[in-house]
Specification:
Strand content: over 45%
CATH topology: Porin
Structural class: mainly beta
CATH architecture: Beta Barrel
Protein name: Outer membrane protein beta-barrel domain-containing protein
Strand order of the largest sheet: 1-2-3-4-5-6-7-11
Order of helices and strands: HEEEEEEEEEEE
Number of helices: 1
Distance between the termini: 34 Å
Keywords: Signal
Number of strands: 11
Length: about 230
């Protein structure tokens, strides 16, 4: 029902826009900036690639050429309590963070007065980290041990390249709906793991190099199953 209502609203908005804004320049020109957000799950329930939860900006260095930048940042943290004798409590806090960044260029084609089709490419960077902090909790994070503390940290770095194509349709001046798909590769390398643990006079402080096999190489399509709503400034 929500999808039907949303689709009907978009159709009504488009018809209203044509009646109120039938003439004039709609598409970006030299010096314009655009930004956008997405409404996911219209065509499916998943989104692949950096576009999921991404902030995106474009700057038009010419009427038909735009530089683009996008990024997304996510993080979460979970704390578990470990009980000892006499209601003593230790803690184990696990945290993860993910940062995605892309920088690229778009070539826009003539299309029509309101429709702007384009092709381009992105350089991709992904940074992922995982950490754990222990207080009054043993090395494994499962038992209470008074006076102990520890930190663990690891992560990965990904580099890639993506080719993209898409289209923007300007429903009114400076407001557009769009879609985009792409294809590219991402090479991911695990980073070294760091451990620092203290228990009385005992201290463990070491770095474990990432295993040679802890690397992945992916080549896959990137399809945004969402409606992109953007604004031109």
């Amino acid at each position: 029902m929500k999808k039907i209502v949303l689709s009907a609203s978009l159709v009504a908005l488009s018809l209203f826009a044509k009646a109120q804004d039938a003439t004039g320049e709609h598409k970006p020109v030299l010096g314009d900036v655009t930004t956008e957000f997405s409404y996911g799950g219209i065509f499916n329930n998943t989104q692949l690639g950096l576009a999921n939860g991404q902030l995106k900006f474009r700057y038009f260095v010419a009427d038909n050429l735009a530089a683009r930048i996008g990024f997304n940042i996510s993080s979460n943290s979970k704390t578990d309590h470990v009980l000892g004798n006499d209601d003593e409590v230790g803690t184990s806090t696990e945290s993860t963070s993910n940062v995605g960044f892309n920088l690229g260029v778009e070539k826009h084609f003539s299309g029509s007065e309101r429709l702007s089709t384009y092709a381009g490419a992105d350089l991709l960077l992904q940074l992922n980290s995982e950490s754990q902090k222990l207080t009054d909790t043993d090395y494994t994070g499962s038992n209470y041990v008074k006076g102990t503390s520890g930190k663990y940290k690891t992560g990965s770095t990904g580099l890639g390249l993506r080719l993209v194509t898409g289209a923007d349709y300007y429903i009114v001046k400076k407001v557009y709906l769009g879609g985009e798909l792409g294809w590219g590769f991402l090479y991911t390398m695990a980073r070294d793991s760091k451990v620092n643990f203290k228990n009385g006079s005992t201290t463990i402080d070491e770095v474990s190099p990432a295993e040679e096999g802890a690397r992945t190489f992916e080549v896959k399509p990137s399809v945004v199953g969402a409606i992109r709503l953007g604004f031109r400034f």
